[in-house]
Amino acid sequence: MLRLVIQRLLALIPLLFIVSVLTFSFTSLLPADPADLIVGEQGTPEQYAAVRERLGLNQPIVTRYLRWVDRAAHGDLGTSFFNSVKVTDALMQRLPITASLTAVSALIAIIVGLAAGILAALRPRSLIDRFATLGATFGQAVPNFWFGLLLAAIFAVGLRWFPATGFTPITQSPWDWLRSVTLPALALGLASSAAIARQVRSSMVGVLQQDYIRAARAQGLSRRRVVFKHALKNALVPVVAVLSFQITVLLGGALIVEQVFAINGLGTLAITAVRRQDIPMIQGLVLVMVGLVVIVQLATDLIYGYLNPKARPS
Amino acid sequence: MSVQSETPRRAASPAPRARRGSFYAVTVPSITVLLILVVLALGAGWINPYDPLKQDLIHALQGPSAQHWLGTDDLGRDVLSRLIVGCRIALIAAAEATSIAILLGVPLGLYIGYRGGWWDWVVMRIVEAVMSIPGIMVAIVIIAILGPGLHRAMVALGILFSTSFLRLARGVVLTEREEVYVRSARVVGASDGRILMRHIFPNIAPPLIVQTTLTVGAVLLAEAGLSFIGLGVQPPDASWGTMLNTAASYMELDWFLAIPPGIAIVLTVLSINLLGDTLRDTIGRGITVAVNPAVPVARFDASPEGNREIGSEPSPRRDDDVLRVEGLQVVVSTADGEVPVVTDLSFGVARGETLGLVGESGSGKTITSLAVLGLIGAAGRSTHGAITLNGTELRGVEQKRMEAIRGNEVAMVFQDPATSLNPAFTVGDQIAEVLRTKKGLSRQDAWARAVGLIDRVGIPRSAERAKAYPHELSGGMAQRIAIARALSCNPSLLIADEPTTALDVTVQQEILDLFRDLQEEFGMAILFVTHDLAVAADVCDRIAVMYAGQIVEIAPVDDLFARPLHPYTAGLLSASPHGAGRNPPLPTIRGSVPRPGAWLLGCRFSDRCAYKRPQCEMRVPLTRAARRMVRCARATELNLRAGK
Fold this sequence. Notes:
The complex is a heterodimer.
Chain A: H1 2-28, H2 34-39, H3 45-55, H4 61-73, H5 87-122, H6 127-139, H7 144-158, H8 174-208, H9 211-218, H10 223-260, H11 266-276, H12 279-307
Helix pairs in contact in A: 1-4, 1-12, 5-6, 5-8, 5-10, 5-12, 6-8, 7-8, 7-10, 8-10, 9-10, 10-11, 10-12, 11-12
Chain B: H1 16-42, H2 44-47, H3 79-115, H4 117-132, H5 135-146, H6 150-177, H7 180-188, H8 192-228, H9 240-249, H10 259-285, H11 304-308, E1 321-334, E2 337-350, E3 354-358, H12 365-373, E4 380-389, E5 392-393, H13 399-408, E6 410-413, H14 417-420, H15 427-439, H16 443-456, H17 462-465, H18 475-487, E7 493-497, H19 505-522, E8 525-530, H20 533-539, E9 542-547, E10 550-556, H21 557-562, H22 567-575, E11 623-625, E12 628-630
Parallel strand pairs in B: 3-8, 3-9, 6-7, 7-8
Antiparallel strand pairs in B: 1-2, 1-4, 4-5, 9-10, 10-12, 11-12
Helix pairs in contact in B: 1-3, 1-10, 3-4, 3-6, 3-8, 5-6, 6-8, 7-8, 8-9, 8-10, 9-10, 15-16, 15-18, 16-18
């Protein structure tokens, strides 16, 4: 397993390199001159030159890139162009919010998706099977933020079971955290759960027809044991393969759903940064996103290796 | 914000007949919705009851009424009019972003796929990097460069979604590039551009159409999302996304504002997606509805009398019979109703005896062995007869009891060890699990016993091999493991279904020897299913020849080989003493084994038989002749030899 971890980590190096180059060069393409933005219309040419010097804008782009990477490696992503807020601080403040929202929605998607998928596979064409199919079809067509609005209208505004807006950190009050995260996580997770259920169902149906399932039954193992141990471990292999993609989708969805519930996460930060063309902030945001995706990929790779012995390096 | 990949989502496709019905049930409403959308978008100026931008603050936030069918928004603007203008925005958005995605992705994908090499590598790494970031974030970064607004946001989405077209085009080129006709065009000297246009592009068209519909759906959702967060369409212009943005702010005052734009998005995207699904299915397999070719099906009498009428003599009872099967009939359900696959089947296997069940595929051998285990599956069931194992009737025994019997009293070795061992667990674990659950052994004891068994079936370094996964073992070794698992609870009957067929010829003999050794040691009865008479001759004491779901002859091996009583047996013997392929048509017998459901009423072999007489058109019972039994109306008069 350790060898798998190392192998996966090494495979990440080119990805991180390309993403950092892309991020840096793309944001250098921004039409706005950051020095111009900072100095403003009242600034003198001397002030303008000083700001350019301070930001290192007069140096060649490769030097700027290397300096940026060097600082980023030390946890310094620069300072926002618009206030003296450190990018790292701003990101670290918002990261737990978006990360916990994504994590809870992923949990909902996986648990509901697994349960529904297995049941649908065991009883094809049953009510739950049709429901999962219908849910997957609609999940692909219903915008998650609209679903969030509906949930908020019913359960927050109407029934007042949950707060309509805001986010409580888990460290402050676990109960309030759960209440504040439930609706947005449902809005995000349910569509994915239907997609996962479809995946689980089709791979489970395939696995249940395999010889080794019949062989296990012929050996007198109980149906429950064969389904939940022998079949499930194999059926999850293709599911896990697409899980990191699903979670990436959830992460992107979280940026928008945050706006429905007025949650001050990375999404809000990103929208403000884009409107102000706050380059260091955008660079930092992309890196954090990639970091999250990389962690998810690593985790799913390891689960994949556990489930599928053939994928382990020997 | 994702485009589904181009893989079929349906695991089991519905029956062909149902498909045409659902084809129209899906396409007609979908196309209707999309047509309405286009009409509204084009005719927005004329159809609109009000100016979508005209404010009327006195009548703000009013619910549906006769004047305003869908009410008014926070500035008193007519919701219906804004919704209709939104159709136009949606259409523009979808057209812009999708065209950009195609125009950017397809040529680039074709080019790098065709050229390969360095360019291909670099572009693909960049595509991978972009795809590892959530799509909405990529769009946000591009919008940061271009600035917000509908058209700029659509350029951003176009760039984002071009990655899926790029991968699609590249994938098609990579497969087509090496096709013979492309290579020969190159040899003839056709230019690269010509080859791409003439030979490769036509192959991209079908998946391209499907990918386009999927992308349109995704673009519509993404546009709504971007406008919702204020980076797409800018107020006061109306799009479904900005309307939802307004609705979000006034949720507590007027929740109805969220309903019309939301339903518009869902209906549109749903129609596009369903159409895309249908297109994919249609392009994938063609919409022609397959009709089963008409076959002359013998009327089959499913009543108990139908079986008894045959009047087969019971197979002789022996005191040491472990398994007795009498008058067994198995049916499976098909589209045309239940079809018998095994009828009037009777045999016995005694302690220490090996009975070979020999026949070509489709003769019902495997279904017979599964019937003994009660594992025919949901599609089939046994309708008549008795299966007695160690004096216990197995037909109709309850599930729990049957689970206890399996493994303990009867176990099975399957044809292909590569598929009959679970790939996700170590082989030792799979044996130990049986011992733990069936015999209640502790973890350590079960593991120690498993290692012992692995050693017993002739695998060296058993303690180490027990920790291996099936794919790490050779076929022969994996089959030894399967045998060890089957024997772990010391069953009195072992069913082996073509246990050597999937193995190398050199390994086959070793496995056959192993069966003989183990039988000597454990004394179990073996039911050995095979299509290969030579293999059967090697390990079996007696052989039952099956044809079209019936036993046509049972005899001790020596008698059978010396003097077959049934013309089919004679044909088998002369066909291939050392079974060449899996199922070569028998050279000495014309025709092939009839499918279940297409059996003749009388002797099922009669249409291929050289000795056919009028009496062969009557049902033929299995009759006893000395130490053997045969199902042939002329058995006593014919004097057959192997090879006629």
